[in-house]
Each structure stands twice: as structure tokens, then as C-alpha cells.
Amino acid sequence: MLRLEARPQASRLMTWLSPLLAAVLTLAAGGVLFALLGKDPAEGLRLFLIAPLKDLYGLSELLLKATPLMLCATGLAIGFRANIWNIGAEGQFMLGAVGATGIALWAGESESALVLPGMLLGGALAGAAWAAIPAWLKTRFNANEILVSLMLVYVAQLLVSWLVFGPWKDPQGFNFPQTVMFADAALLPVLVDGTRLHLGLLFALAALVAAYVFMYRSHAGFRMRVAGEAPDAARYAGFSARRTIWTGLLCGGAAAGLAGMAEVAGPMGQLTDKLSLGYGFAAIIVAFVGRLHPLGIFLASLLMALLYIGGEQVQQYMNLPNSIALVFQGLLLFFLLGADVFIRYRLRFGSEAAGA
Amino acid sequence: MTTSSLPPTARLALHGIRKVYPGVVANDGIDLAVAPGEIHAVLGENGAGKSTLMKIIYGVTRPSAGEIRWEGQAVTVRDPAHARELGIGMVFQHFSLFETLTVAENVALALPGRPELRELSRRIEEVSARYGLPVDPRRTVHALSVGERQRVEIVRCLLQQPRLLIMDEPTSVLTPQAVEKLFETLRRLAAEGCSILYISHKLDEIRALCHSATVLRGGRVSGHCRPAEETPASMARMMIGKDLPHCEHGPAQGGGEIRLRLAGLSHASDDPYGVDLRDLHLEVRAGEIVGIAGVSGNGQQELLRAISGEERLAEKHPVQICGAEAGRLSAGARRRLGLCFVPEERLGRGAVPALPLVDNGLLTAARGQGLVRAGFLARGKARAFAERCIATFDVRGGGADAAAQSLSGGNLQKFIMGREILQAPKLLVAAQPTWGVDVGAAAFIRQAIIDLRNRGCAVLVISEELDELFEICDRIAVIAQGRLSPPRDIGEASMEEIGLWMSGLWPGAGTSAPNTAGEAAHA
């Protein structure tokens, strides 16, 4: 007989093995899925996982996709560690894009070197401002930040739509819902010639390092960790719960806003209503698969980016719906949550008395 | 003692009981026999395996090895319902009552089938009258005092006419007078042939009540005795393996400046079942230890939160720390005034369970001890502080990198105590400083508190252990129903008098709640 037995202490090894286990199980389940859809599983998985990585361009596309995921997940992880559940990175991402676009449109054809820093600041501030709404409602009225931040995603989506269908619509755009293409001074420089990989990747890497320093080296980060691990201990030690909420949400909002800025100033070069491919939501999965740790988030965002690109590949070559990427994302989170059980428990064979 | 030498009439006989949890052997080869009508003590320190053994008897958990014989028959107790069917009843240390239901409804929930409430109420009154356990079956539980709740638990057991009653540390929530009352009930039960297993670490109680005792130490039986023929010292030796340590006290210096003043502290609790604080007055001076006695749940939690700043007040003046009006200050700001605080719950409040001791040292000592530089953690200094704490306060288990949750309760308490004391506070507030701590560590902690006083710190200790308060305090006050008695010099106070005050009856207490009066009437 199989049974679960509590471990005397949470297993540190399983904490990191669990995401790997989840990734393997996701692949296995994905293979079964391909078979059920009448496709060759081996070919499907090859297209999904290996084909995207076969050349430099493929690798650059992977890093390009990973950039917004990395940024969003890093910001979210700071809040998640303190039990601040910001589910609205998607909306903060869009607001960041809107903020950066506003500055780019206002600068017009200006060639000033200040345009990009301005957009950077505008994007981060706009994302943070969007996250400040749930923070204020939570500290003022104890409103649940999960609901408020999630609902604001839809508000943000409608705001973007209104802008690109209305005041910001490109007059020469044949009525497409999009702004004019940004001037060169408002575009992030490309890192590798012949690819679309841009400076945003360096922002993301810098954010990872900054998050690491904040989480593990600063007193503020320590206070946030205590607030997440043991709220009563944080209150006992006199750490401000209000400050924890604000820090958690503002970090998440600013990072997501930055990601939104990097998206419009990077591969898109304009604002459209098809701005996000759900990066803000996928980043939640990335943050957890990465164990809320910067290094883990780096690896998990690469994996998630691969799922995005692989989804496009199988859509293209196997005639499968693009939503297969979402299925893979869901499978990954599902298996991760399942595998996480083994951090606190282990499998034992036989009855309780015999096992003891 | 082996099973072969036991009288064949033993109501309950355990032989070679062993229980292994992952990573720890809780019980190891335990033999125990209880005769009909015998009050049998199970004596041991925290962690000696008493609770595990009782859970095995009551069917909450199964032994890994060993045999249970009930009235001569080998049995496997499947679950608590099976235990009750056999005739085993248990009163837990922590009550399992629904606050919003009446006494009769609570009792009905524990009985098989669907008893008719009016008939049940009659039976409750009958049993409570017969055993001197007054409870009103129509009252809702949240309005009952802790002593009354315990009576409900006992009555609930007695309605099933048990032949073995297990009492787990029953007196920790009672006034001395209520303890005497409980003992009368237990003696009457025993005289009628009911066997009683009485679990405790209080030696004088066991001597007064129990016919025989089995002493546990580290999961094994370390001795059997007849408590009436032993001294507390000889039983303590069996329990802890050495002599009971004592504290060096010495007289208080007196006349120091006022470090804590409660000036008419009133505060309504947010919790509907919490206790409202009503007009509390108290002064604690440098160089003295003031104790607050009281049965748990009489406002201690609320008072501690109001002093520590975890709960802020509407006004500034009712709590004054080192001369500053602190009622509206945050917990962090009050610490900066010189307050250090040891809370009752260690894991999750006094310490973060999953973090190592280095980080737990940072929890409250970060600013005062210079463990933070320009917003960044000074890891080396934090480690040095934690190691100093571990060395000075003899914290055993794993060193500075061990997670707080991996330490035993006593060692974690020594660490928390050390962390607060090493910050050289002007005012130390400690709640239940030795609760659940083994005798050796408890003596160490009490001595540390006294030494701190001798260095001129003002100390406030809130405890449910009267013995402890009488051992370390210079003055003692009593909290009951959210009110605070005037303090008394320890030399002029007696256990009996303080016990009576714990029911809310001190001179000038004036308007006591009906609940309080009721409690006192049968105390």
C-alpha cells in the first residue's frame, strides 16, 4: 500500500527537484496529448522543444520571449514572498506599454537621447501606478488584492483598445487598431545584428540581480520575507504591514511596466491592441516554477518562452491550434503543484505500523 | 515491572508500547498498569512522551509496537469513538468545544445517535450535581470561564460512564481553589471504581491526589513510585535525572525610575470572544520584577498586545514606556524606546519557523545592535550576535544555521530570551517565559530574568504559573475579566489570597461580572 508520510523537515532537495519533475511530467503528458490528437508524439515534441533552438536566430527569439516573462516574474516574486498576491501583472504590463507609448508619441520625431530613458521611467511609473490601486485599496479598506489586481487587467485591456481605436490611432494605418511606428530614438537598440533581441534583455538580467540583492541582502527584503513566512512574527518585530503591501505591489507593477515598455520599444515598435500574449499571467507560473528565486526565475522564464515558441511552431507545421501553448503552461503549473507535495511529504510503501 | 507480575484485574495494562514518528522515538518500551478505582499519575517533562502515550490509549494514534490489554483482553483501539465504546474517556488540555453552541448542544455532538436536548439537559444537571461540577446546560460556551469549560468537558465524559478517565494537564487553567474542587470530584469518581490517568508535571498536585505514579523520561519509563511516600525532590530526580535547580534571588533595589506605566488602559477587543481591557493601572520601576497572575483568557493576550504595540490604542497616554506616551506608537517605535518583549508563542511569533537562528536574531535586534548598515544586512555581525546569544544562553541544537523550528521548545525559548536580553532593554515584558520548557531550562530562564533585574532593568512577567511568579517577582498583581488588581509586595502575598483574586475578588474590585461571581461561588 502506498501512503504519504510527513517529512520531519521540508526537503531542500525536493524544493528544486520538483520543478524539474514537473517539466518532465509536462513533456510526457504533452506527448500523450499529441498522440491523442493523431500526431506523432516524437515529431510533436521535437518541433515543440528542439526545433526552436537549432540556430542563433531561434535562440535570440527564445531570449526575446523570455525577457518580459523574466521582468514580470521577478517583480511578482518580491510580492509573492511576502504573501502579496498580485495577479494583475498583465494589466501593469499594458499600462507600462501605454506610459512608454505616450512619451514616444509626445517626443515624435525628436532624436534626443532622453527619449528612451523617459520611456523607461514612464513605463515603470505607469505600471507601478496601476499596481498602486490595489495597494491603496488593500491598506485603506482591506480589499483583496487578488481580485482588485485581476479585475484591473480587464480595465487596462479596454484602456489600450480605446487608445488605439481612438485618440492614438495611426491616421495612415488603414484603420488598424495601432499607433504610428515609433521614431528610431524611441526604439531599444538591437543587441545582435540580424535578430530582434534588444536591450530589454539586459534590463531583465539587471532586474534579476537587483531582486537578488534586495531579497537576500537588504533589511527591507528581509522584512518582506518574514512577513511572508510568519505574519505574526513580522507584527511582533514591528515591521510595517502597510509598507510590505506597498513595496510588494509597487515592485511588481514597476517591473511589469518596464516589461511593457520593452515590448513596445522593442519587437513591436508601436502600441497595438494585441500587445500581450498573456506574459503577465504566464509570469505567475514562471515565478512559482522558479521557486520565487531570481536564478530559478531565469531558468523558468527560458522554459516558458520555449513553450510559447514551440506552440507557434506546432501551429505552423502540424496544424494544431495555438492554444496548445496554454495547455502546456497549465500542465506545467498543475504538475508543479502536485510535485510540491513531496517537499513536505514522502512516499512510503506498506502500512503505518510496518513503516515505523 | 513486567506484565506477568501485574494483578490480573488491571483495568488497563500496557506492555512494551513503542511509537516512532519520523525522526523521533516518542515512546520506547513503556509498561503501565492501572487498577480499578486507582488514580495513576503519568509524570514527565515536556517531550517525555506523556501525550503520545495517552493518544495511543485513546485511539488517536496507533503504537508502532506493543500490546494494550483492556480489562484482561488484548485490544486494538481503532479510534476515539472505539475508545469511548470501550469505556475510556479523555479530557484534553485544549478544549474541543464550539463557542457559539450551548453546553447541551456541545455535549450532544459528542454522544452517539441524536439525543433529545431536553432529556440530555436533565442528565447533565444530574451528573453535574452528583459530582460537584456545576454547569448550566443552556448557556453558550463562549460566555463560560475556562474552569467552567473544563467542567463541560468532564461532564461530557462522565455521561458516557467511563471506566477509565484520562486527564491531560487539567490544572493549568484553574485557580488553586478550583484545583481543590476538581480533586474532590476525581476522588469521588475513583471511589466509585473509575480509574483515572492523571497527566501532569506538577509534583505537589500529584502527591496530593494520586495513588501511584509512572515517571517518563525521554520516551522511557524512568521509575514507578507511590507519590505519598516521596518528596517533590525525589520525584523530580526521577523526572529530570538530577536535582531541581534553584534561583538566586536577592532583594529588589527599589526606588528606580518608572519604566512602564499603565494609566487607565482600556481597550475593546476586536475579537467577539476576546476580552475587553477595563481601566488598568500599573507601574513597573527600574530594578524590579512585577508579575501578573491570572487564569488564561482573562485579558493577558490583549494586555500584552497593547503594551507591545502589536495592537495600537486610540490614545497616547494609557501606555507610557520610559516616560514617553506610547499608546499610538508602532511596535518598532516602542522597541526604540527601550522595550523588549518575549511573546507566549515562540514559533511563528517570537521566531520565524523556517529561518535559521542568524535571521531570527535579526528579527528584533537588527537596528539596536547595528546589524544593518545603510539598509543592508551586516551578515557577519548578525552571525556574531546569534552566536553570542547561543553561547551565553546555552542554546543547544544545530548552531546559528539551524532553523528555528528544528530546536526544542526550551532551547528556542532560551534563544528568544537571549536575543531580547542581550539588547540590554530598559523594560522587558515576558509572557509565559517558561511555559512548556523543561525544568532545567526553566530555572536558567528565571535566573536570567532575575540577573537582568539586578542590572537595573524593569521587568514585567505575565504567567499562569503561580509558583513561578512567587519565585521570581518582587510585586504581583492579578488580571481577571480584563481588570487588574492592585499589586502586592510578594512578601505580603499568599498563594491562597492571589488564588482568590484570580476569580476577580480583590478588595475594591467592586462590580464583578456575573460570570466571575459564579466562578467564585464554587471555588
TrEMBL record, chain A:
<feature type="transmembrane region" description="Helical">
    <location>
        <begin position="277"/>
        <end position="310"/>
    </location>
</feature>
<keyword id="KW-0812">Transmembrane</keyword>
<feature type="transmembrane region" description="Helical">
    <location>
        <begin position="146"/>
        <end position="165"/>
    </location>
</feature>
<dbReference type="GO" id="GO:0005886">
    <property type="term" value="C:plasma membrane"/>
</dbReference>
<feature type="transmembrane region" description="Helical">
    <location>
        <begin position="322"/>
        <end position="343"/>
    </location>
</feature>
<feature type="transmembrane region" description="Helical">
    <location>
        <begin position="114"/>
        <end position="137"/>
    </location>
</feature>
<dbReference type="Pfam" id="PF02653">
    <property type="entry name" value="BPD_transp_2"/>
</dbReference>
<keyword id="KW-1003">Cell membrane</keyword>
<keyword id="KW-0472">Membrane</keyword>
<keyword id="KW-1133">Transmembrane helix</keyword>
<feature type="transmembrane region" description="Helical">
    <location>
        <begin position="92"/>
        <end position="108"/>
    </location>
</feature>
<dbReference type="InterPro" id="IPR001851">
    <property type="entry name" value="ABC_transp_permease"/>
</dbReference>
<dbReference type="GO" id="GO:0022857">
    <property type="term" value="F:transmembrane transporter activity"/>
</dbReference>
<feature type="transmembrane region" description="Helical">
    <location>
        <begin position="62"/>
        <end position="80"/>
    </location>
</feature>
<feature type="transmembrane region" description="Helical">
    <location>
        <begin position="197"/>
        <end position="215"/>
    </location>
</feature>
<protein>
    <submittedName>
        <fullName>Nucleoside ABC transporter membrane protein</fullName>
    </submittedName>
</protein>
From TrEMBL, chain B:
<dbReference type="GO" id="GO:0016887">
    <property type="term" value="F:ATP hydrolysis activity"/>
</dbReference>
<feature type="domain" description="ABC transporter">
    <location>
        <begin position="12"/>
        <end position="243"/>
    </location>
</feature>
<keyword id="KW-1278">Translocase</keyword>
<keyword id="KW-1003">Cell membrane</keyword>
<keyword id="KW-0677">Repeat</keyword>
<dbReference type="InterPro" id="IPR027417">
    <property type="entry name" value="P-loop_NTPase"/>
</dbReference>
<dbReference type="InterPro" id="IPR017871">
    <property type="entry name" value="ABC_transporter-like_CS"/>
</dbReference>
<keyword id="KW-0813">Transport</keyword>
<keyword id="KW-0067">ATP-binding</keyword>
<dbReference type="Pfam" id="PF00005">
    <property type="entry name" value="ABC_tran"/>
</dbReference>
<keyword id="KW-0472">Membrane</keyword>
<dbReference type="InterPro" id="IPR050107">
    <property type="entry name" value="ABC_carbohydrate_import_ATPase"/>
</dbReference>
<feature type="domain" description="ABC transporter">
    <location>
        <begin position="260"/>
        <end position="506"/>
    </location>
</feature>
<keyword id="KW-0762">Sugar transport</keyword>
<dbReference type="InterPro" id="IPR003593">
    <property type="entry name" value="AAA+_ATPase"/>
</dbReference>
<dbReference type="InterPro" id="IPR003439">
    <property type="entry name" value="ABC_transporter-like_ATP-bd"/>
</dbReference>
<protein>
    <submittedName>
        <fullName>Nucleoside ABC transporter ATP-binding protein</fullName>
    </submittedName>
</protein>
<dbReference type="GO" id="GO:0005524">
    <property type="term" value="F:ATP binding"/>
</dbReference>
<keyword id="KW-0547">Nucleotide-binding</keyword>
<dbReference type="GO" id="GO:0005886">
    <property type="term" value="C:plasma membrane"/>
</dbReference>
